[in-house]
Amino acid sequence: MQIDLIQEARRQAEICNACRYCEGYCSVFPSLHTERVFSDAAITQLANLCHNCRGCYYACQYTAPHEFDLNLPKILAEVRRDSWEHYAWPRPVARRFHTHGGAIALALVVGLALLFVAIKAIGSAGGEGFYAVLSHNAMVAIFAPAFLFPLASIAISLRQYWCDVGGTTIRFSDLKAAFIRSAKMQDLAAGHEEGCNFEDEDRFTHARRHAHHAIMYGFLLCFAATSVATIMHYFFDLPAPYPLLSLPKLLGIFGGFLMTLGCVGMVRLKLKSDRGLGDSGAWSGDIGFIVLLGFVGFSGLALYALGSTTLMPPLLAVHLGSVLTFFLLTPFSKMAHGFYRLAALVRDAQRKRNAR
């Protein structure tokens, strides 16, 4: 990892540790205040606990023009991104993604082109609905490796992260505490009942928290739709297409709406926010990934709405291309934050348990 980023984060953390004004703001400060000497691993753990709500910056008396020039949200965002790049496997792909947001568009175009080729070359197996365009076996052959690769990549990355931050054997209570905190996204409130001021220094709202909730739960609903459809296909001999009121369709429609609206809201908030309080070097990658995720949800909804028309074949290719791109880029994009954030919360739960 970049030594200069770690050193600057260490300098700021030591000042925050002496001040302690922001002690109740989020998970970062209680963890920070238990340290006396900040190792590289401790800085990495703090960075992945941070959700960049920026409440500490706006409350801080030591920001510029003060000589201390504190900007903890920015430096932790930079360390966080650097840690993702350091632990990512394969590592060069992650660095190129964050510095070249256009890679998302390129990957999407390539994914679409490959799918069009696959559709023409493999053809249909005489199925109904989507399977009339691309057979079930062809879809499995394309998407199974694309789904398993990011899982393997993230598992390798998280294992290294867990070892470096001193993680120990995980107990059920650690997982429970981390999942509850993650599900509620408490740290996005910045210690205030009225929310955080991510988008405007003088305006506290829960808008960012709600956008995160919409994206996360929308994605989980879409994943549940695919999982239910898989179970129905293989265990109950009920292949697609499914009627509108079937469980896969209902889960997918609600999930698609939530994911699309959440991504639109997140882009709006990021455009209004101060880029100087985040990792400006990863701006294009962040925006590009959010747009891609929102497009996955939107194209899925369009496919539901127009699946019985002549527009279905090109819409299917566009949707599957975006999904394929999303899968392949997951280990190297902002999506990785969710996994590291959860691991950091589990490690923090262990710290609290050991402190009792």
TrEMBL record:
Keywords: Membrane, Transmembrane, Transmembrane helix. The keyword GTP-binding does not apply. It comes from the Bacteria. The keyword Chloroplast does not apply. InterPro entries: Citrate_utilization_prot_B, NarG-like_sf. The chain crosses the membrane at residues 101-123, 129-152, 214-235, 247-267, 287-306, 312-332. This is 4Fe-4S ferredoxin-type domain-containing protein.
